[in-house]
Amino acid sequence: MMKERFIWGLVVLAAWMSGCSSPNVYMDNDSNQTVVVAVDELSFKMPPRSFHELKLDAGRHQLIVKDSANKVLDETTFTVIEGGLLNIGKSDYYIWTDLYGDAALDSLKLKEDFLEIGEVSLFGDFQKVDPSLYYVEKTWDYGLGEEFPEDLLGWNISKDRWIIKRKIFRAQDLIKAYYQLSKTTPPPAAPKP
């Protein structure tokens, strides 16, 4: 009897823990349009510049995107391996790769080059995410809702110790973070005609 209660308790605990698992997909609408998004049986109204975190099992999922008048804009399927980004607005996202450690290693370990976003030029290791894809599997360490740290606290830097970290950004958030972390000021915006 005692053994059966213990086993039943483990089953209940496992079921509870699986229901409380953390989100693994970041659904983002970085467009100027309100859309209604259906992922499998879940439905979300997503205003412009909004996001929602989801917990999706590994495997194939159905995605339907409608405008605010309920007209279907797109219908597709995507496959989740571990988690990633649902780019609902088909907007531009960038992954910034940075090295924590001896800055002299940057040229050896990073693929640094200039990146132009509108009138702004940034220098670093940046990868543009294909905006034609609705779903992108995670290859970054820090998601849209997380900060890209200036340094790794408690981590002793030496000539031989370094680590690479990546963060995904919306285009405008990348520009803002770049200038904050580099402690420089962005160029003034071009006058509008």
- CA radius of gyration is 21 Å
Distance between the amino and carboxyl termini: 81 Å
Overall shape: it is: globular
- In what order do the strands lie side by side in the largest sheet? 4-1-7-11
Question: Which spans have pLDDT < 50 for at least 5 consecutive residues?
Answer: 1-19
User: What is the strand content?
Assistant: 35-45%
Work out the helix count: 3
Mean pLDDT, all residues: 82
- Return the string of H and E elements: HEEEEEEEEHEEEEH
The count of β-strands is 12
Query: Approximately how much helix is present in the residues?
Result: 10-25%
- Main sheet makeup: 4 strands, mixed
Structural class: alpha+beta
Task: Describe this protein's structure.
- The protein has 193 residues and is of the alpha+beta class.
- It contains three helices and twelve strands; from the N terminus they run H-E-E-E-E-E-E-E-E-H-E-E-E-E-H.
- The strands form three sheets. The chain has a four-stranded mixed sheet, with no helix packed on it.
- A hairpin with a 2-residue loop joins strand 2 and strand 3.
- The longest helix is centred in the N-terminal third of the chain and has 18 residues.
- The radius of gyration is 21 Å and the shape is globular.
- The N terminus is likely disordered.
Could you list some keywords that capture this structure?
single chain; 193 residues; 4-stranded mixed sheet; 4-stranded antiparallel sheet; 3 helices; 40% strand; disordered N terminus
